[in-house]
Design a protein that fits this description.
The chain is built from 13 helices and 20 strands. It has 475 residues and is an alpha+beta fold. It binds flavin-adenine dinucleotide.
């Protein structure tokens, strides 16, 4: 079957990535998004190119995250902040840095083989430099160096952290790994501009899908909002994020899944030097010493995660589907945040706690203040394992794809699988894999337009416009 009329419910990173690929191969696509702008669901800031933030997941998930992250960086190169991540194991943590080394070696070897097979995959720098270790002596030496405006190598990236770190609070070595940042506002801007340039893609914004049912021709999809009416689909893609279960329920499908509400916080540290690496302080998830994540943006803004119930997580933030329902129900106070926003009091309290969480290791950071609204949302996790980090897509009915990504890097495998399902596997050999992900409309987006739109999107959502800017070292 070679269906042409494809309807995608949800314009998050999953929906727009599917629309880009299917639009590129000439399908007639209608992308339906309830919000005014695309990619407005839960946030993302980290390219998990090896899964080194997660000590609890297995090697297979880490290797898949590495491969998928490389694809993601090739698809959205304009959204990748090429700055490394430093991983520190606190002295208070039972783990040791050496415990992480076996996996890092494994990842470095896998990356080297991928680059050997296809040099275009070298998006994380030289394979032998995938990670580098820093002992205490070197950190103390770098603490005396001047920060470099545009860092060119691992040592230069390490200087700002070395200058502010409480060296007694962490174990050595520190690990610098080539896991980069992703700017979600730039993904939203670039994908939006490219999709608007595709004549065969129609975007219905501020339009909600309120019903879907199978019919002889495929599916009938009912819409309300800016577009009011019914659309016939030969092929339906459910990319509704944490509301995936609602579309399943419209089609009479039952599936076990979870949704989790989490929040990161926007702080501003005026004294911060121009460019920092991202910094992870490991810790046991869900305890008061849960992982701390310091994600730098331009303009002195820093996004913060603290994997404790008082900061990023909530004691009632994980909900599972129950009984005959496919859609897990989050407590009302989360839905209120998602639909109406935060009270200034809770925003300030949680941001303050996040600052204190990171200031345990970076004492000067205690001077930072609230920089903007939290970056937050609910995300879907298929099945019943809350530690799952890799998932792509399922096809529970003919001509129906249900996207279920957990990390954004899974979108390329997800979209490729959908194309295979649509066209049949026999056509696979006809498609050149490298060509598949070259999207002319995406490549044609002018940096000036992209930068302006990314800033506008950030500002339209109440964030500092500077968070839509790039944050990169020497290219
Ligand atoms: C705090 C936090 C931090 C995170 N950090 C990272 C990170 O650093 N790296 C990473 O890889 N991942 C991260 N994630 C996960 C990441 O945010 C999600 O995996 C990703 O955004 C999911 O994208 P999606 O397109 O599947 O869903 P969504 O972005 O939720 O998109 C679904 C869209 O569907 C629309 N929709 C829903 N129902 C309807 C309907 N009936 N009609 C019309 N439209 C509808 C919604 O409005 C929404 O825009 C983080 C998640 C959270 C919560």
């Amino acid at each position: 079957m070679n269906a042409e009329k494809i309807v995608i419910v949800g314009g998050g990173v999953a929906g727009v990535s599917a629309a880009l690929l299917l639009g590129k191969v000439g399908k007639e696509v209608t992308l339906i998004e309830w919000q005014a702008t695309l990619v407005s669901g839960p946030p993302f800031c980290h390219l998990h190119a090896g899964g080194n933030l997660y000590r609890e997941i297995d090697d297979d998930q880490c290797l898949t995250l590495l491969r998928q992250s490389i694809d993601f960086a090739r698809l959205y190169p304009f959204a990748i902040d090429r700055r490394p991540t430093v991983i520190a194991v606190p002295t208070e943590d039972p783990g040791k840095p050496e415990d992480l080394l076996r996996r890092l070696e494994l990842l470095r070897g896998a990356y080297a083989r991928m680059v050997e097979e296809d040099p275009a995959r070298k998006v994380l720098g030289e394979p032998e430099e995938y990670f580098r270790l820093f002992g205490r002596e070197e950190i103390e030496e770098l603490a005396k160096a001047e920060a470099v405006e545009r860092p060119r190598n691992a040592r230069e990236w390490m200087i700002p952290l070395a200058r502010h770190l409480d060296v007694d609070r962490v174990r050595y070595p520190l690990i610098l790994v080539q896991e980069y940042g992703i700017n979600l506002f730039r993904v939203a801007a670039g994908a939006g501009l490219a999709l608007e340039a595709m004549p065969n893609v129609r975007i219905l914004r501020e339009t909600r899908v309120t019903g879907a049912a199978g019919c002889a021709e495929g599916f009938r999809v009912r819409c309300e909002g800016a577009f009011d009416g019914e659309i016939q689909a030969d092929y339906l893609i459910n990319a509704a994020g944490f509301r995936t279960g609602e579309i399943d329920e419209m089609l009479g499908l039952r599936e076990r899944r979870m949704v989790e509400f989490k929040a990161a916080y926007t702080s501003r540290w005026k004294e911060r030097e121009a460019l920092w690496p991202e910094v992870i302080f490991h810790g046991e998830r869900g305890t008061p010493r849960g992982m701390g994540q310091f994600t730098p943006y331009p303009g002195g803004y820093v996004q913060l995660h603290g994997m404790t119930p008082e900061i990023t997580l909530y004691s009632d933030g994980l909900a599972a589907s129950e009984g005959v329902s496919s859609q897990p129900r989050l407590p009302e106070h989360f839905m209120e945040k998602i639909e109406k926003g935060w009270s200034p009091k809770e925003r300030d309290e949680r941001t303050r706690r996040a600052i204190e969480h990171l200031a345990r290791f970076l004492p000067d950071f205690a001077w930072a203040g609230v920089g903007g609204p939290p970056l937050f949302g609910a995300q879907q996790i298929p099945g019943e394992d809350p530690t799952l980090r890799v998932a792509e897509v399922a096809f529970p009915l003919a001509r129906y794809a249900r996207c279920e990504i957990v990390k954004v890097s899974s979108v390329s495998d997800m979209a490729r699988e959908i194309l295979r399902d649509l066209e049949g596997r026999e056509s696979e050999s006809e498609r050149d894999e490298a060509e598949l992900w070259r999207i002319p409309q995406l490549e044609a987006v002018a940096e000036e337009d992209l930068a302006a739109r990314a800033r506008n999107i950030a500002a339209s959502r109440g964030y500092p416009a500077a968070m839509g800017d790039r944050c990169v070292g020497e290219e």
